Predict the structure of Tryptophanase.
Amino acid sequence: KLPYAEPFRIKMVEEIQQSTREQREQWLKEANYNLFNLKSSQVFIDLLTDSGTGAMSDQQWGALMTGDESYAGSRSFQQLHETVQKISGYQYLLPTHQGRAAENVLFSVLVKEGDVVPGNSHFDTTKGHIEFRKAHAIDCTVDEAFDIENLYPFKGNIDLAKLEHVYQIYPKEKIPFCLITITCNSSGGQPVSLENMRAVKELSDRYGIPIYFDSARFAENAYFIRQREKGQENRSIKETAREVFSYGVGMTMSSKKDGLVNIGGFIALNDEKIYRAASNFTIIYEGFITYGGMAGRDMAALAVGLNEATEFPYLESRISQVEYLGNKMIEYGIPIQKPIGGHAVFIDALKFLPNVKRAEYPAQTLANEIYKEAGIRTVEIGTILADRDPDTRENRYPKLELVRLAIPRRTYTNNHMDYIAAAVKNVFDRRDEILKGYHITWESEILRHFTVKLEEA
Ligand code: F0G
């Protein structure tokens, strides 16, 4: 048997720069200990996000050159529309400038004050758009997701009892839809099984509640279904994705992930009335309905990207690389969410830094230590990200306090993965010396993690 190798070769490279520990300590201080405030030149390996940070293929760059920039009825829109129809089975398409814009447009139609939206660990902008409308997101993720050692293969699944409880205690008019996020970013890039989606659909049908998908990483989710679900191993990714979408009535998409482009998003759905209403909001917030904030060339590149992202060899190389990094960490004894997720490795900061108080943000503390160690930028998925409770204004302490190492698509090599694992191991080896975290000196009302200012505790 031959070793595994990537199904692509590299045609263009971008230089990245090393720095010294002294420089990084100074830069971090100037950034108010918030990694979002760093300049990219101060970062050696950037694992802040897998969103919009991947490499496009030669086919996508080619498509950019032939994009059609017509304000209305662009040919590139047609190409994208046909591709989305083929992949999702949904009839109508509304492009938007990115995923949260799709949420803004769709929720402007569907979500009202006092509503509840059940789902599996909503992403922060999704929750933000729900709470901004004085509605509530209710997390119905299975309990297995919150035990990092539990090897349950579909930790993105929705707990049917939790969901039915929501359906029973709230009147139907207060539940505009159930939202399934594939893969579930907040629980660690964890997939949702086909079986679970079927069951959620059956239950939701009984209560008359429609299902929408937050499908930023739908192709990675389909890959996991193929790898882990009985009877799915011989199906193509496109076939599986199509079945997934058949259990819902529509989707929001951040094209910056499984669209393999640097910017873009869309809504796809079947209901004409909702499409008409959402079209008005698209025009107000985004642009005319055949571009919605995207350049024609970007829609053309996205049409190609969606096709590439739903091919098995691409997904195998993508997810194997994340697995490679995760397995190294496991080998070093570092506590990470298992099984390893699709787009990122998630470190359990409470287990990694048991000496740092919860109120001093252990995950942020660990992310900052990893940056100081090796110039690697990661992101806190913990208490800072969880924001304050909109009613009590108290800190919300999530069940897990995580540091996410998100791997951009087709961007870094496995040598980078070795470097990252070694850097985290160095921090792990001196974890007993890390006793203090940070205090917040300034924060915004909502989505505070992007701009929060911190000081050393
Ligand atoms: N839904 C999910 C599951 C996401 O992960 C994101 C973005 C969005 C929606 C919003 O999409 O960024 O295009 O507006 N996630 C990025 C991340 C930012 O780092 O995980 P967007």
